[in-house]
Amino acid sequence: MPPPDRRLLFLINDTGFFLSHRLALACAARDAGWQVHVASRADARVPEIEAAGLTFHALPIERFGLRPLGELRTALAVARLCRRLRPALLHSVTLKAVVPGLLGARLAGVPAIVLAVTGVGRTYHDPGLVWRLLQRAIPRYLALLARDRTRLLVQNPDDGRALAAAGYLQPRTVLIRGSGVDLEAFAATPEPAGPTTVLLASRLIAKKGIGVYVEAARRARAERPGFRFLLVGAPDPGNPDAIPEAQLRAWHDEGVVEWLGRRDDMAALMAAAHLVCLPSQYGEGVPRCLIEGAAAGRALVASDVPGCREVCREGETGLLVPPGDPAALAGAFLRLDAEPALRRTLGARARAVAESEFDLAAVNARTLALYESLTE
Description:
By secondary structure, this protein is an alpha/beta fold. Helix content is about 45%, strand content about 15%. It has a 7-stranded parallel β-sheet with strand order 3-2-1-4-5-6-7, with helices on both faces. Strands 10-9-8-11-12-13 form a 6-stranded parallel β-sheet, with helices on both faces.
């Protein structure tokens, strides 16, 4: 085995999310001399991880929910793996992996830990009793187990403030906005000819505002039938918040949106659109679809929630609307259809923001510098 001072272990609850949001970072770490390991649920996408030269380890980690016995089971499995691998650093990605990852790493004596919260999401925006208890418990749990070489990595300042207000130790919080975007792959191109086309690419769950988007599309098309509304994403029947496939097909058959399923040609889809939209109803980290849309030089339309407003800035790169408001969302679409000069101005500024703040190479370099500072 390589020396433990160059061994890095990622822990994540979803291989698909790792591939879309952290594979480039893992490859950058590999190229910088780290031996990179990935621990997650075993599924059909594991070969894609191994094809990148990364070592995969199957772990019993659930994709959704925070259940004490399940988290303890995962933490013990993380501890066993870490005792065997002896990584210099564990990087847990998403709150679902942070909770068991921190405990498991502490049990195994991992010297350095990065806990990446990719948007506090439902935890800090659900009024239910269980989630209100978690809002109080999780920051205290983090503060209790954190040590000098533990860092909480947040993607937007709203999440940092929320966790600090709830009791997490602010000096150990590091802000790195998003996972970055490949500025060459998502090159700015002129708008396409034809009717105004709106693109929403997301996990197809209710909290992402999918139903709000469909209703806004219905209203906008009632006033201007030429609009096209694209919806990209695969059904996720394992997610309790998932939009059923039958509903997605019904919307597509109605003609209100064009559901394209899962697609891997996002750059081409962005180039074929005029607007990129994310009407999320909870706090995000920094949504990848918005930074990709910005890099492509497209005006953005998004909910005014944490994470979205890091990229979609009112009157600068796009238009913000209240979450859960299809009338306001439709109004934004209609305005940007009627004002193409404004749309193009917003898109040009969005590209400039992507270049200055969300360049993939720069984001990866900042994260690798964090690794080095914790392991030197």
